[in-house]
Amino acid sequence: MAEVELRYFAAAAEAAGRDTERVETDAATVGALATLVAERYGPAMARIIEKGSLLSDGIVVRDTGRPLGARLDVLPPFTGG
Amino acid sequence: MTESRVFARVSDDPPDRAALEAFVTTDADGAVVVFEGVVRNHDHGASVRGLDYRAHPDAERFLAQTCAEVSADTGLRVAAWHRVGELAVGDVALVAVVAAPHRAEAFAACGRLVDRIKESTPIWKRQHLAEGTSEWLGL
């Protein structure tokens, strides 16, 4: 089991009802934890994760098989500009 | 380290357009292209009252990286400033500036810069509609 800090932004924070949380997980990869988050918070979060992106310890996740780090950020699709 | 060819900022303050123009422009430049992204009063047929922009704490680092990539690709000086917080119709949310010896390269580089900023900067907007509801965009 590893302890991971999850941070949620914008619509993801709304879907989770919180900005941040610490979880104990046996998920080995960022993808596995993202799937757990989607299941826990339901369709709105699942859609955000599907369309958005993840940052693992500040690095853009390009491969969801990446080993889980200490912090995972859930980012909805960017809409700046 | 060589002199920086990019300037990037994400802040609550209104973008300082003059400072960005001064940063990118050299005596060798004959063209300065400035893009301003402005809050408009409508979206998908609904009346818009304002936008609330939120940024990831690392947004400025990502914006700087995007500016650096466009600068490296084009060889030009590049600057961008994204404002966050509650903005009203008419407020400027984004200023992106590129200078070049000739206009064609400045227009092309600025267009590419804005596209890349929208794709890769972790910033989100919530739209407040005139009817009183609000919604996160992009979903």
Structure description:
The complex is a heterodimer of chains A (81) and B (139). Chain A is 33% helix and 30% strand. Chain A is α+β, with helices and mostly antiparallel strands and 81 residues long. In chain A, helix 2 runs antiparallel to helix 3 (43-51). The radius of gyration of chain A is 11 Å and the shape is globular. The mean pLDDT of chain A is 97. Helix content of chain B is 30%, strand content 40%. Chain B contains three helices and nine strands; from the N terminus they run βαβββαβββαββ. Chain B has helices spanning 17-24, 59-74, 103-120, and strands spanning 6-11, 31-38, 42-43, 46-55, 77-83, 85-88, 92-100, 123-129, 134-136. In chain B, strands 3, 4, 6, 8 and 9 form a five-stranded antiparallel β-sheet that branches. Chain B has a four-stranded mixed β-sheet with strand order 1-5-7-2, sandwiched between helices. In chain B, helix 2 (59-74) runs antiparallel to helix 3 (103-120). The longest helix of chain B has 18 residues, at 103-120. At the A-B interface, helix 3 of A face strand 4, helix 3 and strand 8 of B.
Distance between the termini of chain A: 40 Å
Judging from the principal axes of the Cα atoms, what is the shape of chain B?
elongated
- Strand content range of chain A: 25-35%
**What series of H and E elements makes up the topology of chain A?**
EHEHHEEE
The count of strands of chain B amounts to 9
Helix content of chain B: 25-40%
| CATH classification, class level of chain B | Alpha Beta
Helical amount among residues of chain A, as a percent range?
25-40%
Task: Give the overall shape of chain A, derived from the CA principal axes.
Answer: globular
| Structural class based on helices, strands and sheet pairing of chain B | alpha+beta
User: Which class best fits the helix and strand makeup of chain A?
Assistant: alpha+beta
